[in-house]
Amino acid sequence: MAATLRPYLNAIRATLTSAVCLGNFESQVVERHNKPEIEVRTSKELLLTPVTVSRNEKEKVLIEGSVNSVRISIAIKQADEIEKILCTKFMKFMTLRADDFFILRRKPVDGYDISFLITNFHTEQMYKHKLVDFVIQFMEDIDKEISEMKLAINARARIVAMEFLKNF
Question: Is the Cα torsion angle 38, 42, 46, 48 positive or negative in sign?
């Protein structure tokens, strides 16, 4: 992990650890319903103040909490056109498999690349610290994956260009 990335991820870890303290809270509007309040937004008093942890203007995390759910939205660093294309394709690949990742949302929040939704049911079935570790590990790995894919594309483009120019 890069030295500049460590304080950013530590800040996200601390914020997520405090935000994942969720409890069972049934709807105040409909009897016997338990919906994630961060999604339905029926009662303003049940929502916490959203927190944005930003490394720079393009790389940031929005953590929106409520009494029974927390939504984590991640904007991934995209320095050039190749990284934008790779990020878009990779996120589309991930969202198509959202059923396999229990906390992954199919549609990210506007302005962000990917979103996770952790509810009180997830924290009852899984360890809280493991959920936070998963999000942090995902953020570390996504940067590595995109960088590796970019290097592979550049290497392949170099080989193709050399083969093409051999004819001249």
Answer: positive
CB contact at 8 A, 22 and 123: yes
Give percent helix, percent strand, percent coil of the chain, each to the nearest 5. Answer: 50, 15, 35
Closest CA to 64 of 107, 20, 26, 24: 20
Q: Where on the phi/psi map is residue 26: left (φ > 0), alpha (ψ -120 to 50), or beta?
A: beta
Instruction: Please give the radius of gyration of the chain, using alpha carbons only, rounded to the nearest integer.
Output: 19
Q: Alpha helix locations (H) across the chain? A: 5-19, 37-40, 81-96, 120-125, 128-165
Closest C-alpha among 116, 128, 121 to residue 23 = 121
The pLDDT tens digits for 38-57 are 999 888 899 999 999 999 89
In whole angstroms, give the CA distance from residue 92 to residue 116.
Answer: 14
Residue bearing tokens 């809270």: 25
Give Cβ neighbours of residue 20 (< 8 Å, ≥ 6 apart).
70, 118, 123, 128, 131, 132
**Which pTM value belongs to this model?**
0.89
